[in-house]
Amino acid sequence: MTVSMRVILMLTKYYDFNSGRVTESSLWRSTDYGSTYEKLNEKVGLKTILSYLYVSPNNKRKIMLLTDPEVESSLLISLDEGATYQKHSLAFDILSLLFHPEQEDWILAYSHDQKLYVSVEFGRRWQLVHDSVVPNRFYWSRLGLDKEQGMIHLEIIISDGRSQYITCKLQNCSDGNKGKPFPGFIIPNSLVVQDEYVFIQVPVGGQSVHYVSYKRNAFYPMKLPKYTLPKDLQIISTDDNQVVAAIQDWHQNDSYNLYMSESRGLFFTLMLENIVSSGGPEGNIMIDLYEVAGIKGVFLSNKVVENQVKTYITYNKGRDWRLLQAPTTDLQGNKVYCEQPYCSLHLHLHVSENPYTSGNIVSKDSAPGIIIASGVVGPELTSNNVSIFITSDAGNSWREVFQEEYSLFFLNQGGSLVAIRHTPLPIRHIWLSFDEGRNWDKYSFTSSPLYVDGVLGEPGEDTLIMTIFGHFSHRSEWQLVKIDFQSIFQHRCTSEDYMTWQLHNEGEVCIMGMKRIFQKLKANVRCVKTRNQYISQMSDSCPCTEADFECDYGFERQIDGRCTPAFWFVPSATSRDCIRGESFLNTTGYRRGAAVEVQPQATEVSSHAPRGLQLFTSEGTLVAALERNVTFLVFLEEGLGSMTSITVDFGDGTAISYVNISSIDDGVKHIYSRVGIYQVSATAGNSLGFDRVLLFLHVTCQLEQIQLLAPSVVVKNKEINSRRCYGPEMWEQSAITGGLITKQR
């Protein structure tokens, strides 16, 4: 189902349980917000079975329909909001589509046989981009970050256990036009391109090392607290020029730890430990972390504490967390006796993946401060005796509004609330609130009880229409009930209908260096909100306090709130990227949170001896082919700078030196002319010391011939000596000469 202004398009399918497949489909179109529908099967083909419906995110007049690939492989295109269609045959079966975020006609299509195609004509013509592409690991370029707009980031499969990150021009992905932002192989299914950041995983010494590129620059290993041994990492957010990542440590099974980085995504500090995790319906990982819409920096999370799951809230993007205060009274007005930390409010934080059903928790940008969620009051989160709770002040105080499970929806751009009972039984009524859930009016929306399957919210920007769809019985056809709330509202909202509300955290109004004041409708005002009238937020800076700062990398929060160095951290190591004689930004153990303006302190640099030198091949193996380019990758943890030189000795009598390691971000290439096992070394040195690392590379060639040398005359029943020779070269003896190891074959 999809909506564009007054038009609603709906695709229905009939699933035959006997055959185990869809045998019929119908396309419906309404031009009056769902009052009447026209069946369009004749326009798309009476025997055509449709599988998916897409709308261009940049132009809602453009519609694309995909047919069932088991019957035929084709698509139908409409340029007039679904009124007419043109059918185009496909030479491949589409598994998924990715629309360009700005260009309305640019689309990437991923096929069932792992091939990626591109269209710049909204699906009329398609061109192959690349084969062996990893599912869901392809991304459009971003203007301002990438070199050009028409570029694609993708991960391709090289072999079992090895992938490669490449970039391609839109309609020319030949070998000469491919880019390799990271020269080596990466672990399959690890490429993530999100905002200013690119994330990959690289196999190093039998382990997986996470790398990040900021603003499409060189890749560097992500720095976690020293004794963190991640077995999984999920990127949660890249908003506000920071990376929030959920990391599962080696000893965790059903929980993750939450970390936050500085602007480059390199140095991570702990935000919250032991966040609840679960497996999603498609094998994805679901983390119990919810970002509240409309208010920056407010998150809710479920944390495991002594085998109990408890809900915590933060107002400063993870700097401080606290339990939720339980309501003072229940729905009947009885006093609730709940003392922290032994008792508090706990919420289910799963968001619905179905756009037509309500999840366990919901908030809206146009209704700042309002959060609706299902949960319980007690020592821990359970699934028994669940009620519905609402807060109007972003989680400081809560009210119980229903003692059964209900689906709640925002109406009038968050100015009103609609509640529908969540039950397997048929229903007839809905509830409507004009005062943020304090009072509810009951309305009947159908004369006969309806099994509700889903709800379509406001289709237009300023409409007050909701469509409920379901069926009267398990054997009946689909029923759609259109509800127009226009008659309930009295007038368009004016400035007199609004009141101000100030964000606070238990009374503290200065949060992350800002005082924020929002506008919201007064209670019981029945006026229609319009987007151009709505002023979302007014803010003013305020003096910074300790609560506005996070602990910097290598520092840990103490009970009294101070940030002190961890036992493994050497604070002076923060200067390792600096050039001697210049200055670097010294750490005091704190770094500013989002939206806080604080000037860092510059300190003159002192160089460090090189430490943590790493050397490996771009393919992640210790075998290379004769007379083929071998790319060596060199990384250094400490001692970077223009005064540190790097020397790579290839073990065959040749070596090459570089003044600065940054000049070899793309790796060092070399060609071997003889087979053998070579001792390759990399040495980093400056005036304070050096570091050296070795690897042994086996250079092989294709076997072209075998020659057996034996005496021409032999004596019967007496041993003889024969000799085998392997081509194209023969190794004569076991010896080490310089860096080359030779042996008899």
UniProtKB/TrEMBL annotation:
<dbReference type="Pfam" id="PF00801">
    <property type="entry name" value="PKD"/>
</dbReference>
<protein>
    <submittedName>
        <fullName>VPS10 domain containing receptor SorCS1</fullName>
    </submittedName>
</protein>
<dbReference type="Pfam" id="PF15901">
    <property type="entry name" value="Sortilin_C"/>
</dbReference>
<dbReference type="GO" id="GO:0016020">
    <property type="term" value="C:membrane"/>
</dbReference>
<dbReference type="InterPro" id="IPR006581">
    <property type="entry name" value="VPS10"/>
</dbReference>
<keyword id="KW-0325">Glycoprotein</keyword>
<dbReference type="InterPro" id="IPR050310">
    <property type="entry name" value="VPS10-sortilin"/>
</dbReference>
<dbReference type="Pfam" id="PF15902">
    <property type="entry name" value="Sortilin-Vps10"/>
</dbReference>
<dbReference type="InterPro" id="IPR013783">
    <property type="entry name" value="Ig-like_fold"/>
</dbReference>
<feature type="domain" description="PKD">
    <location>
        <begin position="633"/>
        <end position="689"/>
    </location>
</feature>
<dbReference type="GO" id="GO:0005794">
    <property type="term" value="C:Golgi apparatus"/>
</dbReference>
<comment type="similarity">
    <text>Belongs to the VPS10-related sortilin family. SORCS subfamily.</text>
</comment>
<keyword id="KW-0677">Repeat</keyword>
<keyword id="KW-0675">Receptor</keyword>
<dbReference type="InterPro" id="IPR035986">
    <property type="entry name" value="PKD_dom_sf"/>
</dbReference>
<dbReference type="GO" id="GO:0006892">
    <property type="term" value="P:post-Golgi vesicle-mediated transport"/>
</dbReference>
<dbReference type="InterPro" id="IPR031777">
    <property type="entry name" value="Sortilin_C"/>
</dbReference>
<dbReference type="InterPro" id="IPR015943">
    <property type="entry name" value="WD40/YVTN_repeat-like_dom_sf"/>
</dbReference>
<dbReference type="InterPro" id="IPR000601">
    <property type="entry name" value="PKD_dom"/>
</dbReference>
<keyword id="KW-0472">Membrane</keyword>
<dbReference type="InterPro" id="IPR031778">
    <property type="entry name" value="Sortilin_N"/>
</dbReference>
